[in-house]
Design brief:
76% helix; 187 residues
């Protein structure tokens, strides 16, 4: 009888163990999706995780934006150097010829275009304020154009790319007004 009780106890214990242990293991495991749609969603990351700040996509966009800003700044530096060179060429040409010829007019047009681009990149617009001490002769205007173009070039080169410089905008506006004045003389 005792053996019978012992056998019954063992069987009951074995049945209980086969029922309780798998149930406890299932409750500890990750929940499984119940439908195929939920299974697909469970495999992929959530949309919030894909567009979270710091994601790879956002990081790549930021790097592209930085590269673009750096290339724009590099272009502005090249334009500033060209502005300075054109101003010096105009002055040396005028000293020799004492007038403005067709090539000098082309240089004035290019200088005007570059000064406008630099001003616009700096966030500026046309100035309604006339410049102080407007030159009264073509020679004085050409001299001021050379000085102003050199000054604008130095300002652009010394300004970091993240900074908006009102000095660059003001100098570009002065240069543009001087160029317009010189163009009137050449006509």
């Amino acid at each position: 009888m005792r053996n019978l009780r012992l056998d019954t106890f063992r069987i009951t214990l074995l049945v209980a163990a086969t029922i309780v242990v798998p149930a406890s293991v299932r409750s500890q495991a990750a929940p499984r999706p119940t439908t195929p749609v939920e299974a697909v969603r469970a495999d992929k990351s959530s949309p919030d995780e894909q567009h979270a700040p710091g994601s790879i996509e956002e990081e790549m966009k930021a790097k592209r934006a930085i590269k673009y800003a750096e290339s724009e700044h590099k272009n502005n530096l090249e334009k500033a150097r060209e502005v300075s060179e054109l101003g010096a060429k105009l002055q040396s040409s005028f000293i020799v010829k004492k007038s403005i010829d067709r090539d000098d007019n082309k240089h004035l047009q290019r200088l005007h275009k570059l000064a406008k681009q630099l001003r616009n990149k700096a966030g500026g617009s046309d100035s309604e304020k006339p410049i102080e001490n407007m030159p009264d002769t073509l020679e004085a205007a050409i001299c001021r154009i050379a000085e102003s173009s050199k000054s604008l070039s130095k300002l652009v080169q010394s300004t970091p790319r993240q900074v908006v410089s009102t000095a660059v905008i003001d100098e570009a506006n002065v240069l543009l007004q001087l160029i317009d004045f010189a163009r009137q003389f050449s006509r």
